[in-house]
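Practice problem 4.
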């Protein structure tokens, strides 16, 4: 990967580790953050659920960002989770699990494959009739809720933060994209959707650049806009994305 130019598009605060990983491999990294986050203005649902935590069996976190915002809200409400010893937590992915542990909590379930669908299929053998609180962003997928419902569970979505696109001037976007970038990396469907919005308002054409996605839902977002995905990370992590990049380089 030495000398290869890689564009990373996740949020500014989440880019640091990914950039460092790539630079250790010799890549030339360009940052173009495509999304930003803010706490939702309407937190009615999550406040209601926090007031009735004794009725909740599981909380499901599908990202580290969700963990961060959820416990920020819970702290503002003065919630003490040790009052709820039977409450269980499930997380998608090691990064989400790590964020939870950094805050002093532990996960009770992590799926083998880092997707919400696999989590919903395998979490809790006796899930029928149980209430599952799912904090999420305004753009998060709800498709896996059907899996929970088919298993007889009651998923309860609660939007707690907004994922917002970052829109650049056409000049700024074109300047970055004129650097003969080899790889475009996307860590969520929302990063690609925002990238595509910028693309539409510019003279840029994605042609020789290869697109690397962190997982199948991100790849789906790319395919929906009729762009080709060169690789999907396995596992669905930034480390997995780097492995995917290296495999592509091996076959050049």
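Answer key:
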């Amino acid at each position: 990967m030495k000398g290869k130019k890689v564009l990373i598009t996740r949020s500014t605060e989440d880019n640091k580790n990914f950039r460092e990983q790539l630079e250790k491999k010799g890549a030339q990294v360009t940052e173009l953050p495509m999304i930003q986050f803010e706490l939702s203005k309407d937190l009615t649902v999550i406040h209601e659920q926090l007031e009735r935590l004794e009725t909740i069996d599981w909380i499901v976190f599908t990202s580290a960002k969700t963990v961060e915002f959820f416990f920020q809200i819970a702290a503002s409400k003065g919630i003490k989770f040790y009052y709820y010893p039977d409450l269980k937590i499930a997380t998608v992915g090691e990064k989400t699990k790590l964020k939870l542990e950094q805050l002093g909590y532990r996960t009770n379930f992590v799926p083998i494959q880092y997707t919400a669908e696999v989590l919903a299929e395998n979490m809790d053998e006796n899930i029928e009739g149980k209430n599952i609180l799912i904090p999420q962003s305004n753009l998060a997928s709800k498709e896996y809720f059907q899996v929970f419902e088919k298993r007889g569970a009651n998923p309860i979505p609660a939007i707690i933060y907004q994922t917002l696109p970052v829109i650049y001037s056409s000049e700024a976007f074109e300047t970055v994209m004129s650097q003969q970038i080899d790889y475009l990396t996307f860590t969520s469907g929302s990063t690609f959707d925002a990238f595509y919005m910028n693309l539409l308002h510019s003279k840029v054409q994605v042609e020789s650049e290869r697109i690397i996605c962190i997982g199948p839902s991100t790849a789906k977002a790319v395919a929906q806009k009729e762009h080709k995905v060169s690789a999907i990370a396995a596992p669905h992590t930034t480390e997995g994305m780097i492995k995917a990049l290296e495999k592509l380089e091996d076959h050049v």
